[in-house]
Amino acid sequence: MKFFFIKSFFFFLFTGLAIANENIRFININYIINNSEVGKNLNKLIEDKNKQIQTELNKIGENLEKDKNKIVNQKNVLKKEEFDELAKNYDEKVKKFNQTRKTRTAEFNQFTINSKKKIIDTLNPIITNFLKKESIQILLQKDKIIFGDEKLDITEEILDIFNKKHKKLKFE
Q1: What local confidence, expressed as pLDDT, does residue 45 receive?
Q2: d(CA 151, CA 52)
Q3: DSSP string, the chain
Q4: What pTM was computed for the model?
């Protein structure tokens, strides 16, 4: 009798898992963000914006280095008060530069986060509709899965739908 009970228990357990398994899929959101038309445009925009910021900061840094060398070269020629005044002004410029760099970096990071969030927000209704249409009950992130049958991966299907519906998004 115990054997029958244990056998029945495992039968129903595995039957339930087999049925549930058909309603589980996984997706790679990062792949969609990076490989969609919108994502590729965003990546180019991020790269261009980063280069612009780096060029701007490097130019300011070079000017500060020139100012520093000029002050150091004049150290023996200037009076102590004049030298101290130049050094004080230089320190203020360095503080301003560091603040500018910090601000620009924070703005860039915030732009990147907000832009990727906008893609995800645009992607969510597409995924939701797909899940309803295909009667999928559970959707997992591919990064969290150790092993999985590639037939359960819906990344390419969602990417195709997303590319058809959204060619461009405006990022601010």
Answers
A1: 94
A2: 43
A3: -HHHHHHHHHHHHHHHHHHHHTTEEEE-HHHHHHHSHHHHHHHHHHHHHHHHHHHHHHHHHHHHHHHHHHHHHTTTTS-HHHHHHHHHHHHHHHHHHHHHHHHHHHHHHHHHHHHHHHHHHHHHHHHHHHHHHTT--EEEEGGG-SS--GGGB-HHHHHHHHHHH-S-----
A4: 0.74
Distance CA 105, CA 69 (A): 27
In this predicted structure, what is the pLDDT of residue 12?
A: 52
Q: What is the CA radius of gyration of the chain?
A: 29
Report the DSSP beta bridge partners of residue 24: 138
Structural contact between residues 32 and 139, judged by C-beta atoms closer than 8 angstroms? no
Closest CA to 163 of 31, 18, 24, 9: 31
pLDDT digits (tens, 9 = 90+) for 91-147: 999 999 999 999 999 999 999 999 999 999 999 999 999 999 989 898 888 888 888
The structural domains of the chain, ordered by start, are 25-165 (3.30.910)
Q: Which residues pair with 140 in a beta bridge?
A: 26
Determine the residue type at 43. Answer: N
- Predicted pLDDT at 167: 82
Q: What is the pLDDT of residue 4?
A: 46
Looking at residue 170, its amino acid is: K
